Amino acid sequence: MARDRDVAAFDIRAPGYEAGWRGRLHHQIADRTADLALTLAPKPRRVLDVGCGTGYLLRRLGARCPDAVALAGIDAATAMISTAQALATDDRLRFLPGTAEDLPWSAQAFDLVVSTTSFDHWADQQAGLTQCARVLVPGGRLVLADLFSAWLAPTVIGSRRGKARTRGRATRMLTAAGFHDLQWHDRYAVIIGVVTARR
Ligand SMILES: C[S@@+](CC[C@H](N)C(=O)[O-])C[C@H]1O[C@@H](n2cnc3c(N)ncnc32)[C@H](O)[C@@H]1O
User: Fold this and answer.
1) Ligand 1 centre and the CA of 24: distance in Å?
2) Number of folded domains in the chain?
3) Where in the sequence is the domain holding 127, given as residue range(s)?
4) Using CA atoms, how far apart are residues 141 and 126, in angstroms rounded to an integer?
5) What is the DSSP letter of 94?
6) Which residue owns the Cα nearest ligand 1 atom 27?
7) Can you give the pLDDT at residue 178?
8) Across all residues in the chain, what is the average pLDDT?
9) Fewest C-beta atoms under 10 Å: which of 74, 129, 166, 190?
10) Measured from the CB, is residue 122 less than 6 Å from ligand 1?
11) Is 90 exceeded by the pLDDT of residue 192?
């Protein structure tokens, strides 16, 4: 994947990413995503966080999932991965640099895939979702939290051209990637939504 402006900006932000009001907002979204994920998949064994940033969500899931054997995070920004590695104290957590579009795991490696506020940055969202489906076991769960709102429709004809920022577009992409049983959840601020789906 070409290294884009979005990813370069996250390399700069990585050391202080969890601080301040933006850090608190990301923690809140991650906490709610963990609650929802564990409602749908109460005892995941193998978890992947795509666009994991500094690894907060995986740390939370690790603390709440004693039966999990592996919790993996991947992120396009190498400084995010270094920060995630430095903050992790649980041996089951593994972080590596890479992209959603080219996940380096074999098919059906995970039973839960999560992603928070990363999807909007993926250079090729359809390819990324197809990879998420590939690495999930049949019946495995995807929990995807990001900018999804009808209010954002005007932005996809501007700077975020082609991005799946509305439920309609995201639903079409998820379905094309092989997901089913899609459910939309309204538990975030107006423009942040979450969709859950089954492989
Ligand atoms: C707003 S941050 C979210 C980080 C974390 N998930 C959170 O909720 O705090 C977006 C992250 O997506 C990563 N990212 C951008 N494009 C990506 C891609 N194609 N594949 C994987 N990660 C990507 C960025 O490097 C950044 O760390």
Assistant:
1) 16
2) 1
3) 5-198
4) 17
5) E
6) 53
7) 97
8) 91
9) 190
10) yes
11) no
